[in-house]
Amino acid sequence: MNIFLAFFVLLVSSQHILGDEKVRYDDFKVYRLTPKTVQAVEALRNLEDSNSEYDFWTAVRGVGYPVDIMVAPHLKYRFNDIINSGEFDAEVYISDVQELIDNERPKTRLAGIVDWTDYNTLDEINDWLRSLVDEYPDNVSLVKAGTSYENREILGVKVVFNPGNEDRTVFIESNIHAREWISSAVTTWILNQLLTSKDTNVRQIADTHDWYFVPVFNPDGFVYSHTTDRMWRKTRVPYFLCAGADPNRNWGYYFNTGGSSSNPCSETYGGPSAFSEPSTKTLFEFITTIGPKLGAYIAFHSYSQLMLLPYGYSSSHLDNYQDLYNVGVKAASSLSQKYGTKFQVGNIVELLYVASGGSMDWVKGTFKTPITYTYELRDTGRYGFILPADQIIPSAEETLDSFVTLLQEFDKIKKN
């Protein structure tokens, strides 16, 4: 056995040995750096591409756009050299990541209960989905949308209230990135509202569409983020030295044409090939069976408060971009009414960065699905991925308000 293979085996073995120990982030800080020059932008991009020691919570966009970077305590002085170069405006945005993690969830909770006052585990979410089939047998059926590398089922539900809506099918995706817990919390709350709400507008969109909800697209990573590392993002497929690929860079539409890394230790590693991850491959196979019927595909992420439009590989305004943008602006206005939360609307590349190989791009490019959005939910960085659980319901309420507007406004476009 050569030395590199031996080291890899030792590394993987140590991950299993230490699997029950939770990673802690004591004194880890999140810095917000705003580059002042083109040279500073390039320096940050090089740092993001070449160095896995720093965790870029948001990507590098350009001069004047802030970038959130988590820095370990032992790297503090080295990072201060970057700050002191004079090329950046800098501030400490989160002074202790572990403190946020410790205060993210209620101090007491009833295990197994899904009531959106706390974040739920995969088992709790899946048990709740199964319970809906028993509670609403005429409307809800369980679907197995895929299987993960660690052989976990990717479960979802199909919801039908009235016959004849097959060509108005809405597919809801969340938690393709493991640490973005707010995404599945919001989508399961919306699912519950479609089943229980008496609100006229909610009932109108519920009753005139068929629905698929798959709350956790990345179950292995999601479980790992609960049991071991709260900040885990990727899948858990083992690669040389590091585990996991970014499942939202792994879809086979303009795969690896920009915005993904070839470094397996990078948070944006796209994988060795399109659909290399068992979760994305099996989800692709499932969605293909219903793709021609899709009227809408909505993906949920966090954070940044954005409504993103296709495509992630190009800033060109392709397909029905103008309709998506116009309706998105109206939806963002509806979202802001309840709590004043402001969302920006626009193309992925223009608002963020090049990010090829995403699930929404694949659906849009393959099936020309007319309604395609990716929500980046609360907040804008004060809590980042560690959004307190008491913001679940407010975030979900405002999102549903926007969702009603999306579907109703597209109905008007279709009628005209």
TrEMBL record:
GO terms for biological process: proteolysis. Pfam families: Peptidase_M14 (PF00246), Propep_M14 (PF02244). Gene3D superfamilies: Metallocarboxypeptidase-like (3.30.70.340), Zn peptidases (3.40.630.10). Residues 118-410 form the Peptidase M14 domain. Its cofactor is Zn(2+). Belongs to the peptidase M14 family. This is Zinc carboxypeptidase A 1. It comes from Tenebrio molitor (Yellow mealworm beetle).
